[in-house]
Amino acid sequence: MEGPFFARLPEGFMSEILSLTSPVDVIRASVVSKGFKPAADSDTIWEKFLPSDYQDIISRSDSAVDCSTKKALYFSPLLLDGGRMSFWISKSTGKKCYMLRARELCIAWKDTPRYWSWTSLPESRFPEVAELVDVCWLDIRGNMPTRLLSLKTNYAAYLVFKTTENSYGLEAVAKASVSFAATTTGTSSSSAETSDVFEPPEGDSVYLKTPACAHDVRYGRRWRHMLPRRIRRPRTDDVIDGRVPRQRNDGWQELLLGEFLNDEGDGDIDIKVSETKILNWKRGLILEGIGSKPRSRSRSRLGTFHIGLGISLLSYEMEGPFFARLPEGFMSEILSLTSPVDVIRASVVSKGFKPAADSDTIWEKFLPSDYQDIISRSDSAVDCSTKKALYFSPLLLDGGRMSFSVDKRSGKKCYMVGARELIIAWARDPWRWHWISRPDSRFREVAKLKAVCWLDIRGRIESQMLSTGTTYAAFLVFKIAEEHYGIEQATSLIRFVNHESDGEAENRAAPVHLVSREGMNHPAEFDGKFPKMRTDGWMELELGKFYNDTGDDGQVEARLIEIISLHGKSGLTIEGIEFRPE
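-> structure tokens emitted (582 positions)
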């Protein structure tokens, strides 16, 4: 949407719409189209994202503040109150963030040179930081007035620090806590005696340095989008039970100490990290401060500017004459940039959206690019009266060998491989497996287990059939008879057939259970995934996940096995294995 298109919009339309989104969406808007840029840079929008008390905050700054534009102000971190604390705005939410410098913390023996030294580092925002020389009693506390923070917001408190190359003793488990103070106390003390300070609860286990017992496990290309590049796996005899630090973009590390809800901004928050039980000697900790910032939550993979803009349109009540003033096709073009869920919500929120929300132009963009080929494989006539009807129509393909559907939220492709197409050990032996029809199944036949001791079920699909750049999960779809036995525990795995052997994959098989927690006598004693009830009356058990990168990895196999105990098993009915986006 460029040039003349924007010129035809009502005056102030884009500014009003963008002000209903988030700061991240506004930035993305200006990148997506130059037509958004004037509105995306306007002071009108960015002043709405600034805290209501931003003028008071600026007045406490130690240096001149760039107030040339409200956008520049939004992205400017500040040192306040003579360098005692720093302030910045969360880029994604507009919430207030603060960090107390090390000098403002209550640190046991912080003014004793044999225990702590004070130095300056060019990469620190503060004039000085605290370096641990040698202590056995580590006790660090901070006090944050909640009136400074954004209201109705979940916050997390972090210790911001570094460790030196010659550090030691920091691998010992420490305790961290965040709690509302019983009474208002100071935040600065040079004494280790803190009996006049409210004692917060002992708190959670944390590590200032990841214990050396952890080692790295590297995964291949096909797994890197699903798992972190380096995963720490402790020895089974020395389990890491607690939070460990993570690296920040500014070169420092941060350790989550705890979380709290700042509801009305009443009172203070006590933040503490300590190791006062093991009493081993410690050195090499460089402490910058303790910060409080809004708790980050994982964003949806669909969380792009287009989604945010679509949601804002939904929340904007525009009826009657307003729509009449918009250029022809404008709403169809806007809605096509959102998600299927947003389009449905739009038509519910306002009748003015409905013609665009039902148009073939929009829904064809949500369909897979190869939808015509998929339709040609259907076993029955397909409702193609509208692209919307097609989007919501599940299909049986290839003579009933598999079913196809579109994920309602993302538009990604989903397939279920029917039981007849699975590789099931002893499936052709009528003494062990029985093939029956069920009215509640999408397939003509399902497999009913009569009696086996060796349970091995595999389902395969070509990766090129799936949506690319997508993390998939594989699910066994089944039912359990009231009179069943031997199927409580098994293992599962996912592998790319051309890249990994059976033996290699079996070494990393994970425990799973075909019986729900409610159906087990002692569920707490068992690790692994449990099945869930589906809306169609069947149960599903996640067998594993994989990342379909470019669709050129060949067949992917999902497998359920129990071939170790070799006890009798019965009472399982298999409909198929489903591959769908995570």
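Residues 305-315 form the longest helix (11 residues).
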